[in-house]
Each structure stands twice: as structure tokens, then as C-alpha cells.
């Protein structure tokens, strides 16, 4: 196709980079927004477990309309079968629990020797982290036939939780069938009921993995914290006597009023910590403290503010209803994204060491001050049909003007139907070199990093099949939203939603005019466990699990994926006047409806004078170190010239309790 009306190229490349994701729990209703939010973090099981369906607004990985989420890829797990209830396994027609059956220990047919017991799926001379009741090792904390002590059976309809019979699970445990389980460590219910880990894998922080993450030890088939697990205190199988707790790896007692018994950094009630030892406040006391975020539905006052679940509205109320479209306060953009809570990096009062936003800045890609304020805005709506997913507002960043075809302050963007194209250079002229910049906030670290096979050090990423589309480090018309936050002590990951538009589409797919969208994440205190973030820090990378290929998010995803979904389907139809050979027939599945009013739609419904296209709402996720600092940089910029703008909408930030597969999905 030829050049679009009103513009001629004079130089070579446009990169749209949205740097690292802002991190704060959704200050507003989860998901929501015209029914368009993507699916939540889900565990996808292959042949053993049943995959968890994600909740609205979390991490999606497949499709363009919000399907299931990134998470564990399950295999032929150790527990569960179509004919047996709960975690029981069908061994030659008999339903049995391979965690404790000496004739089928760990797997069907594996029999323990005479004098050995089956404990946590392992044959041993003694019960490991469990109690010998008769000839079997049982967990008296969850066994309904031996609840709290051998022979103490719960009544019909009751469950055993924390060693007590009741009608529901206590202490943050999840009821899976007739059992109360810890979905953070149970390999048969890893991250959710029925999500069994493949044989040989363990459940670490709610994710199936080959090894336990940092701070956890494999005991049997479970990953446990030897510092506070009373059934594995200091070492696997070391059970604390009745009345004692496991305090920093030793059985004994602890003054919960003044002592940091669980090692979470908060010294008892004196520093606001309402849970120091396992019990009714949960099996993992280190996750309950003033630095935690309230987890609705677990029955625990996670953040120790005296309110639990739906009664605690401190982290769920909107804070973006009255923001102005051209606000100059960077913290307003964090609010529009879904980050309401603020905190201090080093507060004098330990009770004030909560999660939340510490710093916010709006810059250029090299870390210098933004020159053209039209590059950023806050909107409640974009075009005729797109509204905020969470709360009332969303962030707009653009390599041109952050507006649709009719919006003002700033705007409009100059596109269809009355304009010639979405193409505006920043004023004053903005061209920075991210290969030579000196600011610590510059994206030079990303440029110099490697993420094979799509990116080598010192170059921009290439999409599969697009040939050499590298850049020279020049970023034109850039804008960056930088956020510094502290993660909740009970969060291991985060997600946010974005909607990418570009006037480069479709003419410049697989050319040097390849606008990029970056989200760079830094965790300065260490590497997240059990799953690290990408080596180049960029979360705006789509991993196609069906083909095991990586794709940088930008217009080149139209070459071989279905993510560029909002566009004219005629572009990929051979013989059409709109045809472009580099756009595959998986694209444009959602048509042009969402383009109406954005400025990126065609100027006429009867011809192919196309302005651009979009992805629909994508979901991006990254991992964090619980309770520690995380920095994210969202950046968008042109590479090669200042013509034909790209734009991103961002919304729906959420903290997530489990680690996830970092990256972007539809």
C-alpha cells in the first residue's frame, strides 16, 4: 500500500514504548468496564488437574476478548481423577489418597517397605510433618476423621480446619471438596481447587514448579516455610508439641505482643501485626500484617485494620472520578490506572509501612522532563465505544496527542473522519537517544539487554518473520509514566490492562516504522520467586504457547498472531483493495466498531483509505518480591521519524497473590 494522505516519510522508524508497569491494587471495582476486562490469573491443567477459570480483570493469555489467564501449565498431576472425589486417585479401581496410602505412596503401585509409613507421598520410617494414627500418617489439621487428634471425627457436613471441626474452612484455607487446603502449597490444588501439578513438580506460592521458590523447602510433595510450619519446624518432619508454635525455625512460645514471631518485619501488636503464629488468622502468619492487602473471601483481616473481606473497603473504592483530562500531577495518572493508596519508602512508624505508591513522574524515554504535555491525558471514554475498565478513568499516552478525534484539553488528534491522519510531532521537537543517556530513569537498561530470540543487546526487538527491524537508539516523541511502589507483603505479582492503537497499521507492518509498546519492571531488592521477570524487563511481550514464539507488542504482532484484532478484515483478504501481505488472516477478528470516533478509523466506509487499527484490551502481568520496592516505566515513542502516531490506553491495575507467567496476552 502507498503512503497515507497528508504525510511523506523523511526518516526511518517509529517506536512506541510503554515502560514498566505501575503497581497498585485496583482502587475500585474489580474488572468491570463494559464487560471487556480480560480473564484473571488461571491455572491451566493439561491431563491431571482441572484448570481454574480466571476472574474478571486479571491476567489473560489467549484470545482477544478476555479468556483464561497466564498461570501454571498443569500436567498429569498427582491427585484427582474423573471417577474419584477430591484429591483421591483411582488406583486399579480403588479411590485412594496417594499422600498417605502405604500401598500407593506418591503414585499408584509404589508400596512402602515393612516398617515404613507413607507421609506426604513419601515412604519413610516416621511420619513427616504429619501424625501417626493407627497405621497411617494423617494431617490432623485437615483430616475430618482425625481432626486435631487421632480418632476425633467431624460430624456429617463438617470440615476439619486448623484442627477443629466446623461448617467452613478457617485460617485462610480453601474448601476443595470435603477438605480444607492451602492452595499456596498443596500440589493437588495449586493456586485453586483441582489444579494438580504434573508428576515431579511441587506447588510453590500457588504455582507449579520444578523446585520450591526462595524461602521454601520441599517436604514430601509440598513447599513449606520451615520458619513457621509447626509440622516441619526447622526441618522436614519436625513437629512441634501441642501448645507450641514454630517460631523462626524453632518450636516454642512467642510473645505476640512485642515479638516478630513470623519474621515478616512487624514486631507483634506493638507494630500493628495481628497475626504472629499460625492459627485462626491463617496458616501463613507472615502474610498477615499492616503491609498486606485485603484478600476478599478468605475470612482473614489480612492488613490488620480490624476489618475483613467485604467490610474492608480501604483498598476497593475508586479514587479517579474527579480527575481532570490534562492534569499535571503524575499521581493522578497512578489513580487513573487504579493505584489509590500512597505510602512512604522509609516511615518512622512501622505501622505506616504499607503497600502503595511512593513516587510518580511523567518524563521522556531518556528520563528528562516531558516537553509536550499533549502526550498525556486522563479520559473516561475514548472514541464512541471504549470506556474505562476499572473505576471512572484511564490513562492515555501518545507519541502524538493523547486524545481521540473530538476530545480537547488536549486534542483532538487530527485523525478521521475530518482530518487527514493521526500524525502530530511533539512541540518542542523531541528526539532523544536512549543508548547514550545518563539518567537512571532512562530506558537504556532495556536497550542494552538481551531477550532471545526477539531481542539482542543494543537493538530494538524483532517480530518473527519480519526480518531486520532494529533501531539505532533514537526515540522520537516519547512520553513515559514512571511509578515507584511497595508491593503488598501477600502479593507475588500484578496485572494491568492496555489497548494499543497505531496509525502505522497496516502499511508499515514488518518495516522499520515499527512502533513499540514497553512496560519495564524493576525489583531492586532481588529476583521474584519462583518465576523471574524477563531478562530485558519488558512485560509487553506476547508468548504464543501454541507455537512457542515471542512477539513484541506493536503493529508487527499482526504478522503472525490474532492480537491486532480491531481493524478492517479486508486487509488480510487476497484480492481486496485493502490487502497487505504482511497482515495474517487471524487479525481483525473484532472488526472496526471500536475504532469509531478514535481518529484511527477509515475516512469512508466504502474505501480502504485506512488510518490505523488497534489490539483491543490486552492484559499484562509481572512478578514482584512481596513487601519490597518495585518500579515500573510505561513508555511510548516513535522510532525513525515523528510521523504516524501510536497511542495506548491503560487501566485496571491489580495485585495478585500468586506468581504468574510474566508477559502480555489478549
Describe the structure in your own words.
With 666 residues, the chain is mainly beta. It has a domain at 330-553 and 612-665: Sandwich (Jelly Rolls), CATH 2.60.120. The protein has helices at 330-337, 444-447; strands at residues 89-91, 94-96, 117-119, 122-124, 131-133, 136-138, 159-161, 164-166, 174-176, 179-181, 202-204, 207-209, 217-219, 222-224, 245-247, 250-252, 356-363, 376-379, 381-382, 386-387, 394-398, 431-433, 474-486, 493-502, 516-522, 541-544, 549-552, 613-623, 629-638, 646-656, 663-665. The chain has a six-stranded antiparallel β-sheet, covered by helices on one side. The longest helix has 8 residues, at 330-337. The radius of gyration is 27 Å and the shape is elongated. Residues 1-82 have low confidence and may be disordered.
Helical content (DSSP H or I, runs of 4+) = under 10%
Q: Given the structure, what is the number of helices?
A: 2
C-alpha-based Rg, rounded: 27 Å
Average pLDDT figure: 82
Kindly report the CATH topology of one domain.
Jelly Rolls
Given this structure, which CATH class of one domain is correct? Answer: Mainly Beta
What's the CATH architecture name of one domain?
Sandwich
Query: End-to-end span in angstroms?
Result: 28 Å
Given the C-alpha coordinates, what overall shape results? elongated
In terms of structural class, how would the helical and strand content be classed? mainly beta
How would you characterize the largest beta sheet? Answer: 6 strands, antiparallel
Note poorly predicted spans: 1-82
User: Total strand count, please?
Assistant: 31
